[in-house]
Design brief:
Layout (H helix, E strand, L loop, with lengths): L6 E3 L2 E3 L6 E6 L4 E7 L3 H19 L3 H17 L1 H12 L3 H25 L3 E4 L2 E7 L2 E5 L5 H15 L2 E5 L5 H13 L7 E3 L4 H10 L5 E5 L2 H13 L3 E5 L5 E4 L5 H13 L11 E5 L3 H13 L11 H16 L3 E4 L15 E4 L6 H4 L6 E7 L2 H8 L8 E4 L3 H9 L7 E2 L17 E2 L4 H6 L2 E7 L1
Helix pairs in contact: 1-7, 2-4, 2-5, 2-6, 3-4, 3-6, 4-5, 9-10
Keywords: Oxidoreductase
Pfam family, one: Aldedh
InterPro entries: Ald_DH/histidinol_DH, Ald_DH_C, Ald_DH_CS_GLU, Ald_DH_N, Aldehyde_DH_dom
């Protein structure tokens, strides 16, 4: 794969401060496909300085000017959609069709949505005898994960640019090539030098340096809750704003009267999508006791069909983690009805699509985020029991409710402690706010709510 041997800082590709490199490995065949610089604290400092120098001029541009640059960015990404899909497939292991339909297409649409929002958002409003201004918060440190590499970049960088902020991006070390393609698109779109900067590097080195840097006004991070706590502590010491999109253990609640076959089928597909590496995946399926056995049979049969349709997980470490959770599920008394901990292939970091029955709420696999193709089925007695189980984790990122009566599903969803709920298979909406309750995070991404994260408020009284 093509890779830049430098960092994108102040509008140009520049050598890193050291010769340290990160090997990019294809999870499907375990082969090294590229090497990129492992930037360090000095590189982060250079990038932040460039972002600070570019901030006054970029913040002073009109919303229409920022919208024009974001439109050009969307077009530059669209021109690279095939290369983006191929790159994500190579460094993440995602099947090419999924990379084309999701990893490439969705972030292009999100970039377009922020081009429109930049032009239409009310950055100034009258409130009584005051004029309220919504101004850019400043320099943004964006730290993104590997599971949806371009989508997570666009979901942070596009609203930051629309708000008038400048950005330093530290992408996940597993998927830096997609980030380099994004930097190429930014350059082609005519975004001024220093407004966007890219430092590839390791999380404990470059990521920590970015989070701690005094020149960064906001840290936007997507990843594990454990790392999110560390970033929150660092930011809190500096009284610095954070936006944290963290873990999830989302419940898929199937109420009596729902179309059981459809609810189970969509639920299994949701968990297996992206090899289970989705923070919002509905990894707990809650079914009424009277329909539970039928649901287990449906789920097991559906999972078996994904054996050769999903890609590997991202790394050997992730494979070992997921297999460890499967082994723990068996040890704690859950019943395997599909898949298991055995490696399905000798080469590549694959995990078998796995379904557990007879899972109880206190089991580890019902409480902790596995981040792999593993589904747990839990039975409930009545709606109050279902609600107790659904809300009974430290997370609250997403979820689903199925019912024969939509009003019944909505009433249940209103009582769920989670940031986003799909009703009877509701479609993804790139303008709807995404983010979590409890330990699933702080703040929101996408749409106007995502834009608001990068703005601060000033009022003028007359």
């Amino acid at each position: 794969m093509k890779a830049h041997d430098g960092l994108y800082i102040d509008g140009a590709w520049r050598p890193a401060g050291s010769t340290d490199e990160i090997e990019v490995v294809n999870p499907a065949d375990e082969q090294v496909i590229a090497r990129v610089p492992a930037g360090g604290a000095l590189d982060v400092d250079s990038a932040v300085r460039a972002a600070r120098a570019a901030l006054p001029a970029w913040a002073a541009t009109t919303p229409a000017e920022r919208a024009a640059r974001l439109t050009a960015l969307r077009d530059a990404l669209a021109a690279r959609k095939d290369e983006i899909a191929e790159t994500v497939t190579a460094e993440l292991g995602s099947p090419l069709a999924f990379s084309q339909a999701v990893h490439a297409a969705v972030p292009i649409a999100v970039a377009g949505s922020y081009a429109e929002l930049a032009a239409t958002h009310r950055f100034e409003e009258k409130v009584g005898n005051s004029t309220v201004l919504h101004e850019p918060i400043g320099v943004v440190g964006a730290i993104t994960p590997w599971n949806y590499p371009l989508h997570q970049i666009v979901a942070k960088v596009a609203p930051a640019l629309a708000a008038g902020c400048t950005v330093v991006l530290k992408p996940a070390e597993n998927t830096p090539l997609t980030a380099q393609l994004f930097a190429e698109a930014v350059h082609e779109a005519g975004v001024p030098a220093g407004v966007f900067n890219l430092v590839t590097g390791l999380g404990p080195v470059a990521g920590q340096a970015l989070a701690e840097h005094p020149g960064v006004d906001l840290v936007s991070f997507t990843g594990s809750t454990a790392v999110g706590r560390q970033i929150g502590a660092v930011a809190g010491a500096a009284v610095k704003k954070v936006a944290l999109e963290l873990g999830g253990k989302s419940a898929n609640v199937i109420l009596p009267g729902a179309d059981l076959a459809r609810a189970v089928g969509v639920g299994v597909a949701n968990v297996m999508s992206n090899s289970g590496q989705t923070c919002s995946a509905w990894t707990r399926m809650l079914v009424h006791r009277d329909q539970y056995d039928e649901a287990v049979e449906l789920a097991a049969a559906a999972a078996e069909k994904y054996g050769d349709r999903i890609g590997p997980v991202v790394s050997a470490k992730q494979q070992a983690r997921v297999r460890g959770y499967i082994e723990k599920g068996v040890a704690e008394g859950a019943r395997l009805v599909a898949g298991g901990p055995e490696r399905p292939r000798d080469k590549g970091w694959f995990v078998s699509p796995t379904v557990f029955a007879d899972v109880t709420p206190e089991m580890t696999i019902a409480q902790e985020e596995i981040f792999g193709p593993v589904l747990s089925l839990l039975r409930y007695e009545d709606e109050e029991d279902a609600l107790r189980i659904a809300n009974g984790t430290v997370y609250g990122l997403a979820g689903a409710v199925w019912a024969g009566d939509e009003a019944e599903a909505v009433a249940f969803a209103r009582r769920m402690d989670t940031g986003q709920v799909d009703i009877n298979g509701g479609r993804f909406n790139p303008l709807a706010p995404f983010g979590g309750y409890k330990q699933s995070g702080v703040g929101r991404e996408l749409g106007a709510h995502g834009l608001a994260e990068y703005l601060q408020t000033k009022s003028l009284q007359f």
